[in-house]
Amino acid sequence: MKHEFQNIIELKNLKAGYLSKKEDIALIDNANLELKSAEIIALLGKNGSGKSTLLKTICNLLPKIDGTIIVNEKELSNYKTTELAKIVSYVSTEKIFAPDLKVFDILSFGAYQYSNWLGIIDKNSSDKIEQIIDLLKISHIQNRFYHTLSDGEKQKTMIGRALCQNTQIIILDEPTAFLDINNKLEILNLLKMLCYEHNKSIIFSSHDFSNVMKEADKIWFLDNKEITEGAPEDLVLNNFFESKYNSDSVKFCPETANILYNRKYSKTIGLIAYGELKTWTKAALERINFNVICNKTDSVNVVVNIENNYPIWSYSEADKIEKFNSIYDLINNLKHKKL
């Protein structure tokens, strides 16, 4: 059964790249894609594949080479700049130079299109800025000068400026690139909340494959000028990521949706353990190139038991048994053995 949702953005036979007098350089060719209402799309691809170019083209910051971009049933080229600024906001990876501006000033620039002829924003917009400050948890830096911020704080400030535009469409170029894991997850959860609770439509590029697979409604995968789209789960079930990532050095794991180092195991070891102790002991043993056989014994083995409420790792080889109080001690010992 097919359900219909409103198309907010439509790309029709889009060719995007760079225009020059000698020749046009296309990074995206013949793209036919849609962004629907209240949808989050993650744009994936290698460095230099054209992700930033595509996002800038959709925002009308770069001219298209060919094709059509429709925004709310109107061709992009027919929008005035001030009109488009009320519909589409954009967060770039490029750093701005603003030595004399405070965080609150930069957030206020996002609401400039709602100001009067004197450049003064109305009370509603001012209240909206305060709400964005609370959402992003940046009240402690709102009166600091922008150039004194960390990279992560600068990123959150620029995301805040886009949110202050209060647009239906938000486009972000690697919005979590400079953030620690807590702030990264906060931003992704914020984007989901804006989408599902405030009906925003969002496109963001990222190299954070693991989190993208958990949070995006749809993926646009850019490779060799072509874009493949689909729900993360559908792409996994169709073996799409194996075809893109599997090589001698890395592999895609469909069970966890992670890209893993393709280890070359040089030795085998048995492991008897359960629960989290099994999971993390196995991971540590694989890290030092052991092929781990779980819940079976081999010529060399590790058995994890609980003694006096604490885990003990017992390593056995032939008739010799050694005990360790931590995975670190076990691994450090095994690294220096000739097995």
Secondary structural class = alpha/beta
Kindly estimate the percentage of residues that lie in beta strands according to DSSP.
Answer: 25-35%
Compute the number of structural domains.
2
Rounded to an integer in angstroms, the radius of gyration calculated over CA atoms is 26 Å
The total of beta strands comes to 17
* Strands in their spatial order, largest beta sheet: 6-7-8-3-9-10
Oligomerization state of this entry? single chain
CATH structural fold name of the largest domain = Rossmann fold
Q: Per the principal axes of the C-alpha atoms, what is the gross shape?
A: elongated
N- to C-terminal distance: 58 Å
The amount of helix comes to 25-40%
CATH architectural group of the largest domain = 3-Layer(aba) Sandwich
Major beta sheet, specifics? 6 strands, mixed
What is the class of the largest domain in the CATH system? Alpha Beta
Mean pLDDT across all amino acids? 89
Low-confidence stretches: none
Secondary-structure element pattern, one letter each: EEEHEEHEHHHEHEHEEHHEEEHEEEEH
Helices, by number, come to: 11
The CATH H-level homologous superfamily of the largest domain? P-loop containing nucleotide triphosphate hydrolases
